[in-house]
Amino acid sequence: MNTKTYRYPSVLTIAGFDGSGGAGIQADIKTISALGCYATSALTALPVQNTQGVKAIYPIPYHTVQDQLVTILDDIFPDAIKIGMVHTGELVDTIVDTLAEYAQTPVVFDPVMVATSGDKLIEDKTITTIVERLFPMAAVITPNMDEAAILAEMPVRTLDDLYVAGLKIRKLGCQSVLLKGGHLDAPRLTSLYFDAQGTVHEFGFTKSETNNTHGSGCTLSSAIASYIALRNSLLEAVRKGQEYVYQAILHGSDVQVGKGNGPLNHFFNPQKLTKYDLV
Prior knowledge:
Layout: E1 6-7, E2 10-15, H1 24-34, E3 38-43, E4 45-50, E5 53-59, H2 62-73, E6 80-83, H3 89-99, E7 107-109, H4 124-134, E8 140-141, H5 145-152, H6 159-170, E9 177-179, E10 188-194, E11 200-206, H7 216-229, H8 234-252, E12 276-277
Parallel strand pairs: 2-3, 2-6, 6-7, 7-8
Antiparallel strand pairs: 1-12, 4-5, 9-10, 10-11
Helix pairs in contact: 1-7, 2-3, 3-4, 5-6, 7-8
InterPro entries: HMP/HMP-P_kinase_dom (IPR004399), PM/HMP-P_kinase-1 (IPR013749), Ribokinase-like (IPR029056)
Pfam family, one: Phos_pyr_kin
Pathway: Cofactor biosynthesis; thiamine diphosphate biosynthesis
């Protein structure tokens, strides 16, 4: 007799590895789990890194990425998908073409393009492919100020710059944009969410004096995807995702993990796995 009457809201993360546990798929799985969702994953790359930086990156073959996605999607179909760093146009095509074969589910895309050092991580032709193919399928993209500067082709240093850049990025074909103001030189950090209707929503948080922010972008995009899976509206998911990251930074600010930029405290308030009726 089948006694299974419930299911968990699931979130699929498509991202790279972080052996130090603070970013990438590790941060995604921690975030999704801490918020009461069930995490599945597909690995796109194997960076060798710790809290002090990336030593090397070993790519995963594209057919292997496709095989991972098909195997998961055929068995545990997600309520939301988070996509992290995609470092080549071929990888973008692999992901987009594979997901196109399945019913549409909300996608949160974190367009990782710039390293903490300021160095670009991907080539211009890859950025073009991302804009043309990934942007249209994403419910929301979450660039930081450095990435916004690349996408908008302008300096982004102030809150006024964020407003101008956001309007430019919206015209690139994405459904909505969350511009993260974490690098603003101000005591209060402001992020801007440009929704699908053209309304701009402003979110502000007090700046935390800590370098324990490794993986904050991965964590935010995963948190937004998790809140979508938990049946929040996109605007509420964006709001709650930012609040979660703020609290995770705050609760991890006094802890040393490694010798460089430490991780967030993803489990400052872990939730039990949510159960939905099985239909």
